[in-house]
Specification:
The protein is mainly α. The protein has 20 helices and no strands. It has a domain of 191 residues. It starts with a helix and ends with a helix. The C terminus is likely disordered.
Length: 431
């Protein structure tokens, strides 16, 4: 029987089982989201105004003259973005949109491989199909394809920037984020990270590329001044539709202005503390954890506190979520993942039985998700700091010299995240 057992019960490792299960499922999800849902489209069409602006640019017509008082998607890219998007209008809108969907899927798949590589997993690892399965099960990726917008390329540029920055390819690291900012300035807050990490040369290309593209595009556009006088002021307004920021959510539900302001100040304060704590205790000891978590805090704060925060922006938080594999991650607690569910779920909460209640849940889930994620990260870091203060170990031995990495903080939380073992380890090193 012992001899027969190896034939009757062949053994398979965990690393083989996970890909075997998730690769076929992930491939079919990619097919369904792109070929079926994305090609079908929806009443919201982010591609149409971009294609129309590109067509008007190529024909020498005004680009920024649309009526901004409607609730339809508007063209909001700067002149540099118009220049980069112009090739889309060389062919007819339907085929152009299909090509854009294909390129978006390629960008998302490439992002999955880059994310795995950033965190030290090979392209053949079981982690890649897990990432792809998670990507295409979310609202953020699904609606990016269905609405056909630029977010897939934003994620790809962000991950390329982070990977090159970690490898100290500073000038090259500025190229992908510079190209993204030239089209969609949503990643501008991340330029703080190379500044804090003393990688000044990243900023040369990150700022230089959009600057040069705008200089080139400015005389080629029929109405560049309208971008400054009409579009930029509109970008600063907190509209009350398709807006999950605190200000947009408050405007829709009629929340008092003083409470909206108080909430915005509170989340900025949480972000400042989180960025300070990560910079002080993790930048030199666990650079990847510092970079990925700080980027998540900066972007989540921008989504909440800025004038416009849309649910599909949440895909830019994928590197933050991936830190759950790292000791010391702020994602190793259930409230953080409840927040992730809120801002990334593809579930709809409209109810025919409880109409008002379902509507409230549906329209608030993204805002609550971002908020809970920020609060969970803030509390995780705050409790660590309070424990360290209690035990008198708030100073790093490498502070004076500015170079030595303290192994205590990278050894933290190997038993699951936010327990006291990490503090005890720090205390042992300090003694």
């Amino acid at each position: 029987m012992a001899i027969l057992d190896r034939y009757l019960h062949p053994q398979m490792t965990f690393e083989r089982i996970i890909p075997m299960v998730l690769w076929p499922i992930s491939i079919m999800m990619i097919f369904q989201r792109s070929v079926i849902l994305a090609v079908n489209g929806d009443r919201t069409d982010d591609f149409r105004p971009v294609y129309q602006a590109a067509l008007q640019f190529l024909n020498g017509q005004p680009v920024y003259a649309e009526n901004l008082d409607t609730v339809d998607p508007h063209y909001l890219y700067p002149p540099s973005g118009t220049l980069l998007m112009a090739p889309m209008a060389v062919i007819d809108p339907e085929r152009s949109r299909w090509i854009f969907i294909v390129l978006s899927v390629v960008a998302l798949v490439a992002s999955a491989f880059l994310l795995a590589k950033l965190f030290g997993f090979s392209a053949r690892s079981w982690v890649v199909p897990v990432i792809l399965f998670f990507f295409f099960s979310t609202e953020t990726v699904s609606h990016t394809l269905i609405f056909t917008n630029f977010n897939s390329f934003v994620l790809l540029g962000m991950l390329a920037f982070m990977l090159l920055m970690m490898r100290r390819r500073d000038l090259w690291a500025g190229v992908p984020i510079g190209l993204v900012v030239a089209v969609k300035p949503v990643l501008i807050p991340l330029l703080l990270l190379p500044l804090l990490n003393r990688q000044w040369r990243v900023l040369i290309t990150a700022i230089g590329i959009p600057l040069i593209l705008n200089i080139v595009a400015w005389p080629l556009i029929a109405d560049p001044g309208s971008f400054v006088t009409r579009t930029v002021p509109y970008l600063g307004e907190a509209r009350d539709y398709y807006n999950s920021s605190i200000a947009g959510n408050g405007a829709y539900f009629g929340v008092a202005d003083w409470l909206v302001l108080l909430l915005r100040i509170a989340f900025v304060a949480m972000a400042i503390f989180g960025l300070w704590f990560l910079y002080r205790y993790y930048r030199r000891t666990d650079e990847l954890l510092w970079l990925a978590t700080s980027s998540g805090i900066l972007l989540a704060t921008q989504f909440l506190v800025g004038a416009l925060g849309q649910g599909y922006y949440s895909m830019l938080l994928f590197p933050l979520l991936m830190t759950v594999f790292l000791p010391g991650s702020t994602m190793r607690n259930w409230p953080a993942w409840l927040g992730v569910y809120g801002c990334m779920t593809f579930d709809a909460y409209y109810s025919e039985e409880w109409i008002a209640f379902g509507r409230m849940l549906e329209y608030n889930k993204v805002t609550w998700g971002w908020s809970l994620l920020m609060i969970a990260m803030f509390c995780s870091l705050l409790f660590r700091y309070l424990d360290m203060r209690r035990d008198g170990v708030t100073s790093l031995s490498g502070d004076a010299g500015g170079g030595a990495a303290d192994p205590a903080l990278t050894d933290r939380s190997r038993d699951g995240g936010d327990g006291g073992d990490g503090v005890d380890a720090v205390a042992t090193v300090e003694k």
